[in-house]
Amino acid sequence: MRRDEPFTFFLRVCGFWLYNEKLYSKVYLILFMEEKEMHKKRFFSLLLAFAMLLSMASSALALDAAGEEPAKLLIDHVYGDGGKGETPIANSFIQLYNPNEEAVSLAGYTLSCGGKTLALDEGKSVPAKGSYLIVGASAGTTDEFRTYDLPSADQTCDWTISNKNYTVTLKYGETEIDSVTAGSSDATKISKQKSLQRIDHIDTDNDTDFRLIVWEKGETTVTAENLFRYAPCNSKGEYGNLCGQDAEPAYTPVVAGDTRVNGCYDELASLKLELAGRYNSGAMSADGGSLEIVQYNPVNGFAYAVSGVKGKLIAVDLNESMDGEKVAELMGVEYDLRSMVNENGFVYGDMTSVAVSPDGTKLAVAIQAEGYADSGRVALFSCAADGSLTLLSTVTVGVQPDMVVFADDNTVLSADEGEPRGGADAVDPKGSVSVVTIDKNNAMTVEIATFDSFDARREALTSAGVLVQKNTLPSTDFEPEYIAVSGGVAYVSLQEANAVAVLDIASGAFTGVYPLGFQDYGATRVDLQKDDVIDMKNYDNVYGIKMPDGISVTTIGGKTYLLTANEGDSRADWPGLDNEFESKTSPGGSVTLESKVVWFNAGLWDGLDQSKAYVFGGRSFSVYEVTDGGLTLVYDSGSEFEEITAEQLPDYFNASNDKLAMDNRSGKKGPEPETVTVGTVEGKTYAFVALERIGGVMVYDITVPSETVFVNYVNSREFDGAIQGDVSPEGLCFVPAECSKSGKPLLLAACEVSGTLAVYELTGGSPEEEHTHNYGDAWKSDADMHWRECACADRIDLAAHDFEWVVEKEAVAGEPGVRHEECSVCGYRKASVEFSGAGSAEEPDDPQSPPTGDQSRLLLWGLLLLVSGFGALGAGMRGRKINHR
Questions:
Q1: 0.70 exceeded by pTM
Q2: Residue 858: φ, ψ to 5°
C-alpha cells in the first residue's frame, strides 16, 4: 500500500470530494514531508476536529431528510374486472399493506391507474402490519357468476381496472412508493377470474413476488378453508364472504384503549405484569361467548382462540415483538370449521374448546352437535408455520364435548358435559370423558369412559359430600366440565357435583370421585348482600359450595397438587331444574338477612346438610394435595379476592361484567373465579386466577403450596363504559419464556364479553426488601385478634378484640331479644344470641370499615458539537505549546 492511500481514503470518508491535484499536493506536502512534521501533527488534529463537525452536519442533514421520507406502503393485492359482467367478484379492488411497526397516515398518498389518479383519504391510516381496501365501480355481475363478496371498503372510487393488463402506482407527492404491473409476463397474466396478490408481502421488484388467485366457481381457492388465506381484507381485519353462504352478522367491536396497564402491586411484587398486546375480535357480547378458550403453539408462535359468538377459530400471530409505549395491536385470521365437519350425518352446533399438541404439530377442536343429546366431534388439524390449519380427521365422542386437552402428542381427552338442556321432562344425556388415540396416519379411535360404575355407590358418594340431584343417578347427573392432566392421570371437575373425578388414562376407567368441601362463611368474611356498600363480615351457618369450573394440576417437590377456581354454577337455564332460590331467608329457613341472596336450594339435592344455608361458589381458589385416598386441602384464598378488589377498585366492587353498578354481584357469587392456570417464572411457581365478573387476574406464589401467598393483581378492563377494555376473562394460557417468540414469559387471557385476547408480559425478580409500608385503614381479623396489613403481608396493630354488645332486637315481655358481641375496633362480630328481660346493651362506637371512596436528538448533537469544539481547541493549544518550546 502506498503511504498516501490511507489519507486518500480518510478524505473520501470525511466528504472531501474536491480531490483535485492542487489541493492534494498542498495537503500532501504538509502531512508527508518529514521537515514539516510539526505542521503535520497540528494539521491532523485540526482535520480530525473538522471531520467530526462535517460528519455531524451531514448526519444531521441525513436524519432530517429521513424524517421527511414517506413511509413504505405496498400495493398488496389487485383485481380488475374490466367493467364486464359474469365476473366472480362484483368490483375491482386494490389492497394496500403496511409492513411497518406503526400505523401510517394516508395524507399525501395517491394511487394512479389507467390515466386516473385517486387521492387517498388523508383522514385515515393503514394499521401497523395491516391493510387498507379501495373498492372500484361495480361490474354489474349477477349471482349466477359471483363467487365472493368483498368486505366493507375503507375507501371507494369510480375506477374500472382492466381485466387484461394494468399498472397501478402508489405515490407520496411526486415520489413513487410502489408499482404493480399485470399482464407483462406469464406469471402476471390476469383475467376477470384472477387477481394478483403478493406472497407474504414480499417486495423484491420481481414478478415472482406475486401469485395468481383464481376466483372462478369450482376452483380450489374458493373454499371456506382457504378464503382467509387469499381474500383481501380491510383496515378492520375483516374478510368477505363466499356467495351462497349466510352473510356475516353485524358485530360490535369493543372500545379498548392503548395504555399498557400494569399490575396493581408491581412495586412490591415478585412478579410484575404489563398489558403488552391485544387482539380485538370485533364481536363484543354482553351474554359472553365472544372469545372463550385460548391455547398457544410454541412451534409456530400462534395463539388459537375459540369464538363461540362468531363460530370461528382464530389464529392470533404472536411472533412479533410487543415492545413499545402503547399496547401492540395483534392480527388474527379466522377459520370457519363448520363446512369441514358437517359430513356423514353430523350437524354442526357449537365449537367449545381448542388444544395444541405438546410437539406443536397438531391441534384439536371440540365441536358439539346441533342436537343437544347427540354425540359431538373432535376434529384434528395440522398446524403450518404461517398459522394455517389443514383438517386431518374427525372422530365421534360423547355428548356435548365442552373441553379438550392433549394428554400427550397422540392422545386427546374431551370432557363431555351432557347437560340436561331439554329440562326435567326430556332426556338427560350421560356425562363422560372420551379418550381419543391418534395413529401414525392421523386417523383417530375413541374409548368413552362413563360414570356407570358409580351408580351403585351413590349413597357413599353423597354421604362424603358429593352432590347428586335427588332421584337421579351419578351416571346421568355428573357433568364433566374441565380436565387437567398429570402423567397418565386425568383430573376432571364435576362442577355441579362439587367434586373431582380421577381417570386412569391407559385403562380408560375412573378410579374415584372426591368431594371438594365448602367455604365456611362463619369463619371467612364475605360481602353477601347487595346493598350498595362494601360490607365484609361473617355469616354463621352459611356455606359456599365451591363448584370449580377451571382446574389445573402441577407437581412440586415430588407431590401432585390440584388447583381449583371456585366459581359456582346452577341449573337455572334448564326448565324444571332450577336450583336457585332468591330470597332474604334461606330455603330451609335457618338464615334471614336484610337483602335478597341467591341461595342454593339444598332440598333438591343429596349430599348437603339440610339445616345449613348454602350459596353458589367459594369466591376463592384452592390448592389440594393429591393423595392415595383423595384430596387434602392445603390452602384456600378465602376472602382475599373481595378484599383486594375492594382496595383497588372500591367504586366497582363486585360489579358485573356487563354493568358498572357497585355491589351488583355480592348476593350471587361475587367476583366469580372462572379458571386457574400455573406457570414458572425465574424459579418461582405461580397460580393465575381469572375473575369473570369484575375482571382481571389474581397472581399467587405457590412455590411452597402450604405457604401460598398473594403476589399481584392486574385488570385491563376500562371502567369508562359498562363493557370496555378487556372484560370477563374466561380462558387463561401461560407461555414460558423459552416458548415465547419474544423471549419473555406471557399470560394470555381470552375475554368472553369484550371479545379480546389480552397478552400480558411477565417479569420476575425479588421485590425491594425495603419499601414504604402502606397499611391503610382497613382491618383484617380472625376469631382471636385484629390487625392492619400491608400488601407485602407485614402486619401491625395486632391486638385482641375489644368486644361490646350490640343489640339487634330488643327483648319484650314474653319474647327474647337478639344481640351479638362486636369488636369496637375492627367490627369483627360473634354469632348472634338471644337474651331475655328488659335490659339493653350499650351501643358501641361505629367500627372502622374499609374506605369505599369513591428532544433527545438535539441534545446528542449538542454534546458531540461540544466534544468537537474541545478537540479543535485542544489542537490549537497544542500548536501554541509546540511554537513556544
A1: no
A2: -60, -40
